[in-house]
Design goal:
Elements: E1 4-5, H1 36-41, H2 45-56, H3 69-79, E2 83-85, H4 94-98, H5 103-127, H6 131-139, H7 146-173, E3 188-191, H8 195-200, E4 207-209, H9 210-231, E5 235-236, H10 245-259, E6 265-267, E7 270-272, H11 274-288, E8 312-316, H12 329-333, H13 340-343, E9 347-349, H14 351-360, E10 406-410, H15 412-424, H16 428-439, H17 448-456, H18 461-474, H19 481-489, E11 491-493, E12 505-507, H20 511-514, H21 522-527
Parallel strand pairs: 1-5
Antiparallel strand pairs: 2-9, 3-4, 6-7, 8-10, 11-12
């Protein structure tokens, strides 16, 4: 079987990085997305779409709270309270900490995902003439020609990313279930644009239902897993920026977990409910063994800053050409990087959540964060930091290169999905097993007895709370907190280290604090003729 060595090319974002002195917070890195006229001139339009999509994930958007996917991760984690903004001198992200969610965030998140969807549709349109051959080659187990191989590999990635983008839009703008757990399949959700709409040149689309959007998500993601599984065997790729079959599996598993439908349905030829599918696909990633868990011995050494980490499945290798400098996740969060956090706009773990970790006595993840009685309290001193500057917080001496990498997906996600999906289906033994596999690598040496006692207590509601706890702690700062609150926790009381929400209890029925779906952005309702007089609202929010 022949192998093709494939070098993945990404868009280069031009940046001028200079020493900014006292005025460093006024410097604006520049970048951009592939323009339509540039796309049309590319010799390979399919390659152009892929390039544009991946650059979009880390594109600087003009403001210092708009730097792609990691900025959106921060929106959710701050809004749901697990990331506490403790001080604010410059204002970025402050409104979300205070609970005032202006149109900017709604519009930014909306346009971010729909821009990606548009690019995937352009790419799918470019490969449309070869789709039948791509599928038939796969179905017949044939070795593809070089053209079909690369187009098939791109095709699988495009499907995965479009499905992922739509699932994230649903996460932010509508609920799959109401407050009583009833499905909302027939409720109006968001507009859907596929290759069909692109070819017709439509200026807008009506709202599709929640169920119809999920149908498209699953159609895309199921097929992407099959296509990527087949075509990746012929390709050697070294870039974790590309979506592979395992990443697509967890995209599918997470979408299923968020939908949370316990009704038995026919998914990809099998009669299963959403939790069955979530568990199956998360389990397959774990069983494939391509990505080991981050071991306890490395909890404090990586800084979650290196895409080459074995547990990273999907991420960006930040370079001098692609860094967004001050306007970046590490710039906003890391006290060892020359930007906002080091200058005083500190973001830390919610103090109540920190105290919960500390009180267990066995959880080594407590060391990811500063205690509350030191300089830069509750900040992520050993999670998300520049490793070469780990003991430096003096502003003039911290990391001014801004080259820490961006994580989009870690294998730990698979264990959390598997644990929750099994629990939701009433299989506590399986849920506890996956939680144990993760937590076995999170024990402070010498605290095994306390850990064993904690494990022994996990049953019923205690197991549910342990799953919630591990989502919030393990994935802190990675964009999962809001969905945990909405999906399984339902309400959350904050600690005291927030600007003005200290002690507040957030509840999923309070849309002001929990969701963006009170309104579709005015940029959409104004120019989409189908929505000119329509607003998306749900009584349960």
């Amino acid at each position: 079987m022949k192998k093709i060595q494939y070098l993945f090319v990404t868009v280069v974002l031009g940046l001028a990085l200079t020493s900014c002195g006292d005025s460093f917070l006024t410097q604006y890195p520049a970048g951009g997305t592939l323009l339509e006229e540039q796309y049309e001139k590319l010799p390979d339009n399919l390659q152009g779409s892929i390039m544009g999509i991946y650059s979009k994930l880390y594109e600087y958007g003009g403001d210092h709270d708009a730097f792609g996917l990691r900025a959106i991760d921060m929106y959710g984690d701050i809004q749901s309270g697990d990331m506490a903004m403790q001080k604010s001198s410059y204002g970025w992200f402050e409104t979300y900490e205070r609970g005032y969610f202006y149109a900017y965030a709604r519009g930014y998140i909306w346009s971010f995902y729909y821009d990606i969807i548009n690019l995937t549709n352009l790419g799918l349109m470019a490969v449309e003439g070869n789709t039948q051959e791509i599928i038939s080659t796969m179905d017949n187990g044939e070795e593809p020609s070089e053209t079909i191989l690369l187009q098939g590999y791109y095709y699988g990635q495009l499907l995965a990313i479009r499905g992922w983008a739509y699932s994230n839009l649903l996460n932010f703008y509508c609920d799959p279930m109401d407050a009583l757990g009833n499905d909302m399949d027939d409720e109006k959700a968001i507009p859907v644009y596929t290759v069909t709409e692109v070819k017709k040149g439509v200026l807008g689309a009506p709202l599709s239902t929640v169920g119809a959007v999920y149908d498209l998500i699953y159609e895309d993601l199921f097929q992407s897993v099959e296509v990527l599984d087949y075509y990746s065997q012929f390709i050697t790729s070294n870039s974790k920026l590309e979506v592979n079959a395992d990443v697509a599996r967890l995209m599918l598993a997470y979408a299923m977990l968020n939908q949370g439908d316990k009704r038995g349905k026919i998914y990809n030829g099998d009669s299963e409910n959403a939790y069955d599918v979530a568990l199956k696909y998360a389990k397959s990633v774990i069983d494939n063994g391509h990505y080991p868990l981050l071991p306890e011995a490395e909890l404090y050494t990586t800084g979650f800053a290196d895409v080459s980490a074995k547990n990273w499945m999907w991420g960006q290798d930040v370079t001098v050409e692609t860094t967004t400098a001050l306007a970046s996740f590490f710039g906003q969060v890391d006290i060892h990087t020359y930007s906002y956090a080091a200058a005083g706009d500190t973001k830390g773990i919610d103090s109540k959540l920190y105290n919960t970790i500390d009180s267990l006595g066995w959880d080594a993840r407590v060391g990811w964060f500063n205690a509350g009685d030191v300089d830069f309290p509750y900040c992520p001193n050993r999670k998300f930091y520049s490793p070469n500057y780990k003991d430096i917080t003096e502003l003039t001496k911290v990391d001014g290169d801004w080259l820490c990498d961006n994580v989009f997906m870690r294998v730990e996600l698979a264990y959390l999905i598997a644990a929750e999906a099994a629990y939701r289906n009433g299989d506590e033994a399986t849920a506890k097993n996956y939680l144990k596999l993760l937590c076995d690598e999170r024990v402070i040496p010498g605290k095994e007895a306390e850990y064993t006692t904690w494990l022994g207590s996990l049953a019923g509601n205690a197991l549910k709370e342990a799953i919630i706890y591990n989502w919030r702690v393990e994935m802190w700062g990675e964009g999962y907190s809001l969905q945990v609150l909405r999906r399984i926790q339902k309400q959350r009381t904050l600690g005291t280290n927030h600007l003005d929400r200290g002690g507040k209890t957030l509840n999923i029925e309070d849309a002001e604090y929990i969701t963006y779906q009170c309104e579709i952005p005015t940029s959409e309702t104004r120019y989409n003729p189908y929505l000119a007089t329509t607003q998306l609202t749900h009584d349960n929010n």
